[in-house]
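User: I'm putting together notes for a lab meeting next week and I want to include a structural view of one of the chains we've been expressing. I don't have a solved structure, so I'd like a prediction I can at least talk through. The sequence is below, exactly as it appears in our construct file.
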Amino acid sequence: MQSSFINILARRIIDAYFRCYTNIIFWLNHVKHGANCTVKGKIYIRNLGTIEIGDNLRANSGNRFNPIGGDTVLRLNADEDAIITIGNNVGLSNSTIYSTRAVIIEDDVLVGGSCKIYDSDFHSKDFAERRNSFFHGNEGTHIAALPVIIKKGAWIGGHCIVLKGITIGEHSIIGAGSVVTKSVPPNEIWAGNPIKYIGKANKHAE
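Assistant: Thanks for the context. Below is the predicted structure for the 206-residue chain, given as structure tokens.
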């Protein structure tokens, strides 16, 4: 009985520590956020645009808090004039979100360990521009970028890559290790590389 009480007390103290840590890190990086946000572990933030997070974010960052492998920290990257919007009751784990225009994650979304969400190709399809960007730092003008939207209640399994211009519908599920190259309708399960339709996500949707 006493041991159980001590464990509960210890967890509450640790949670309070991480909430305080999260508030400080978000404040230092100009991240707008709601109440009760907790990031367990060190987080990397590069905010040249706008990052807004709702209430009750739960995030793991580091092998200690999610030992499944992949990236060791959670990364939020917003380029100049870009936005990252994360809704209420969202769970993230050792994931990377990189926005050059917009990445929007709605309420009640779960993003598994080591997922990557990109709204840009990062490099031009033109060889000369791509070479100049890599060796001389000239980014060029033909880099494709389109917003990513993950709708309410979606679940993205671990180690997935979500590419530019994708919308994942409400309550849909993306299987672990998938490369999301096309938009997914609501209430469906998709998986694979590239993804394909597997079935319905909810019994009422069958």
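A couple of points you could mention at the meeting. The chain has one domain: 2-201. The helical segments are 2-28, 127-136.

User: Perfect, that's what I needed.
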